[in-house]
UniProtKB/TrEMBL annotation:
UniProt GO BP: formation of translation preinitiation complex
InterPro entries: EIF2D, eIF2D_SUI1, SUI1, SUI1_dom_sf
Lineage: superkingdom: Eukaryota
Keyword Amino-acid biosynthesis: no
Record's protein name: Translation initiation factor SUI1
Keywords, in A-Z order: Initiation factor, Protein biosynthesis
Taxon lineage: Eukaryota, Metazoa, Ecdysozoa, Nematoda, Chromadorea
Keyword Protein biosynthesis included in the entry's annotation: yes
Length: 160
């Protein structure tokens, strides 16, 4: 893509820009080095991510990749609940996840469709289950730790 806009290629590190590429990148000089040119072009591109579902569907989204977020809230009677947001973006079925949590962790797990700052349904789990849920998402669903926010809210194990 870039080489067809270039008028003259040098063997060295610098390239000569044509008027169109100079206007797009807003580089005022006649020539610039490759690194600067590539950084300027990449900064103009829209951030996009592609999700490939197990059934072969592909979802293309032109925004920053949202993260799965954990929140621990205290309800009446000092009961703690763990809220999980943005599971649908990663192609995780909330009802299937709720059933898996109910069976493995022996705790209540429900979904709510109307949640603030959440794409898709929100999952509510009884108790502070952040550590268990983080391991479940990373091991069973293969989600990288960098896409999960709030793992530090889990219960710390006491040292002996």
């Amino acid at each position: 893509l870039i080489p067809r806009f270039l008028q003259e290629l040098h063997c060295g590190k610098s390239v000569r820009l044509d008027p169109i590429l100079a206007q797009v990148t807003r580089i005022n000089e006649e020539s610039t080095d490759w690194n600067t040119l590539i950084q300027k072009v990449q900064s103009k591109m829209t951030k996009t991510f592609v999700l490939r579902m197990p059934d072969g569907r592909e979802l293309i989204r032109k925004i920053n990749m949202p993260k799965i977020t954990f929140k621990v809230e205290t309800r009446s009677g000092n009961k703690k609940v763990t809220l999980i947001n943005n599971l649908a973006v990663f192609g995780i079925e909330p009802k299937r996840l709720c059933h898996q949590i109910q069976v493995e962790a022996a705790t209540s797990a429900t979904t709510s469709n109307e949640a603030v700052n959440c794409e898709g349904p929100q999952v509510t789990v009884l108790g502070n289950q952040v550590t268990y849920l983080g391991e479940l998402l990373m091991k069973d669903y293969g989600i990288d730790k960098k896409y999960i926010e709030g793992l530090d809210l889990g219960i710390k194990k006491k040292r002996k």
